[in-house]
Amino acid sequence: MTPQDSGPSVGIDVSKKHLDVAQEPRKGPQKGDFRTGNHDTDIARLITRLQKLNPRIILLEATGGYEFQLVAALREAQLPVCCINPLRVRNFARSLGILAKTDKLDARVLARYAHALRPEPRPLPEAQQQELNQLMTRRRQVLKMIQMEKNRLDTAPFPSIQRSILQVLDTLKAQLKDLDRDLKEFVRRDPLWVEDNQLMQSVPGVGPVTSYAALAWLPELGAANRGEVSALVGTAPFNRDSGALRGTRCIQGGRHKMRQALYMATLAALRFNPVIRDFYQRLLQAGKAKKLAITACMRKLLCILNAILKNRQPWNPQMAQTT
Fold it and tell me: Strand 34-37 relative to strand 57-61: parallel, antiparallel, unpaired?
């Protein structure tokens, strides 16, 4: 056993202004718990302290951006770091009977999770991958704001309010156009992304937004098997059986942003992709509900994209029928 294998597990709860740190097993007068700032100098001091501690794993929740600077610094210092879905940690806390939620308590739960389940360190996405992720996330946010303004316009009672909303809509639409241009140019910089983009868009129903979403939010596509990629996106059904009861299988978890992009692509594929359209009709004729049939088509489309990137071959209806 190496010294790092025998080191403590560290949990760090990240917020905009500070970091709460805990370790498991808890030792010393303060039992390893402390708080520091989430700024360059604070992170540098934290790195020095963690290097002396020699942890087996440092576990953080994916908080949507506040953790990027810390994770990058931990990776640069060659410390074993792993980001995890907050839902998993919350479910773990409930299993321990911990219902309260504070920054200090969250750090302790993260440390206990790391100590009990021993997650493996995960590589940090390249800076280019992170930037594409953020560009796609921003595009999604602008689309949401456009829809919100359109909803407000429908109920705006006075012309002055309507003019204000229309001005905001014009600005947001211009932003969306700029983001689409930036995404196109950004993807063009990487020859592999260009090839992957072309391969995915060879599938009827898959446009640039879906292929950009896959590049940004599902980099495992083409490297994982069909079961793994379905589980990552959250299109793999889970059994709900107990004793003699056979419950309805359902999907849960996964990368919801990628799943939403895949849903929109599937709706297009139901019109323009003969393989997906025929598959959907067969499911309906077999008595499947429309929602269930669409979910199955999402999974099939995802598996087709995975096979295309894995085999480095463009759309082929014969191959897609057997995927």
Answer: unpaired
